[in-house]
Amino acid sequence: MAHHGVKDTYEVEGEIQVVQGAELGTPGAGFRFGRIFAQLPPFRPTDASLAALGARMTAALRPEDPPLPPDDARLPAGYTYFGQFIDHDITRDGTAGRVEEVKPLKADQVLQIRSPRLDLDSLYGDFGGRSEAFFEPADVVMFRIGLTEPVPEAAADKNDPVGNALPNDLPRVLFGQDAGKPLIGDDRNDENLIVAQLHLAFLKFHNKVAQTLRAQGAISPAALFKQTRELVTRHYQWLVLFDFIRRITDPHTFAAVLGLEVADLPDDPAAPLALPATLALNPLFFRVTGYETPPMPLEFSVAAYRLGHSLVRPGYSWNRVFPGAPFKQFFDFTNTSGGLGKPDNITAAPANGFVALPSVWIADWRRLFDFTGVPGFPAVPRPQIPLGVAKKMDTRLMPALGNLPGGGGNLATRNLLRGARLGLPAGQDVAEAMAAAGGLAGGAVLTPAQVMKAIVAQDALALGDNAVLREHEFDVKTPLWYYILREAELAGGEHLGPVGSRIIVETLVGLIRASVTSIFNAGVAPADLSDPQTAGTLKVFSPEADSPLRVGGVPITSLAHLLAFVDDVNPLGDAAVAAAAGGG
């Protein structure tokens, strides 16, 4: 179907919709939210019932209650925040006011101000262009890197790195009213220190890639930047899909959408993956049909992808200075959330806070990602340097998320209200629609008994959960976000069930497919992407065959490999610290 001067079509549940009047290449044109299952009725329970359910999701044990069963997942904790980094790359709701506090909205009334492609515009800025303020004036290919603020009183001796300004912070405004403001493509990446340090890692990854390509021969700055960005973007997309999403989704669903056999996937989702040179993608519900700007599905952004809230821990082992930092401090030591200001845990902190990240707060990535098998990394001594892991996926959120700072309220309730305001269907309705099309990958629609919690002595919270579920008949019709988390809980908590997995895998495959630079059909001109002869079987970017980047001679196939390639895994080292540094 040809359309002159407009975006290509997208197909959702068999209905072709055309975005009229937006010329190809217009920055920001056509960014919008949409629905995958637009034919299903919205599920809008009362606010009071959703508030009751949200309160149960963040309920805390009483002192007399027995502890809950262990909830450690295998997933390294760093992936929780890589997931947030991805979210900031593809979605940002610009609707005035908090959506959960306003009247019900249709999908097209919610303002999407982020490019819904995996193109790293949160890194590069300007919807696929580049923002010059982010780059070095003397070398326009290289991102600026910020210096940390020394904390000499925390240094064990004159050689301790914490007493120095180190190139381990986001670039920031250093003077004036905006001092401390990050010079990055999305200020949300400075709301949480773990995300901020991941953003920094990708800035450094870009710079290291540019250095690698520059060393291969003379090339103009413009051409070098283009090649660098394309290679960085393809590695990023590959890691999103084959390192992160493979770990958190049902293997049967993951294989089905990508046109693989589940036998092709290693039993361990962290194990290396051998992919064929081409894939025959097989999405059933979110089918992107060419080089286009697809809608951001609300079923993804408001329900399935909010799984990350269930993974959050009350604290993390961060580095040798703070081997046990509480969750709140990861917000205090950012500019956007904490103003980098007035810390109370470092001796002689400036009265008005810091302008840059204090050197004692630089990440030790060995505590958040598993470097086993990465060349050049000896076995990390555990438990002296513990590997933090995510919480299992379930319907239980960390109790602190029930009372967000700054009057933010209960995060679970906000998520549930948001889903209702935006007219998301009930989880059972989505599951039934998937089942009718053969999309549950061997799964089944949850029964009311499965939505209810099993009453066991080790779970003192289950009785209260079930009372709310039964009172509001949420066991019969369940908010989609809760349904997806309950599916994951029933599957063991290590990965999502079939509904959540299908939404996430199909959405991200579609967004990658629609990206101007994509791991699918790399090197094929955009005009050819809708050609039936090329659309069925797609060439897939290979980190081994299509990239010169290596870590100790092996390709970059995990975030641990990427961090090792950047060569900035633990800048503070493992030396003892002075008592003046305090604890976390």
TrEMBL record:
SUPFAM superfamilies associated with the record: Heme-dependent peroxidases (SSF48113)
Top-rank lineage group of the source organism: Bacteria
Pfam families on file: An_peroxidase
GO terms for MF: heme binding; peroxidase activity
Keyword Transmembrane belongs to the record: no
GO biological process: response to oxidative stress
Keyword Metal-binding: no
Subcellular location: Secreted
Main location: secreted
Keyword terms, alphabetized: Glycoprotein, Secreted
GO cellular component, one term: extracellular region
Protein name: Heme peroxidase
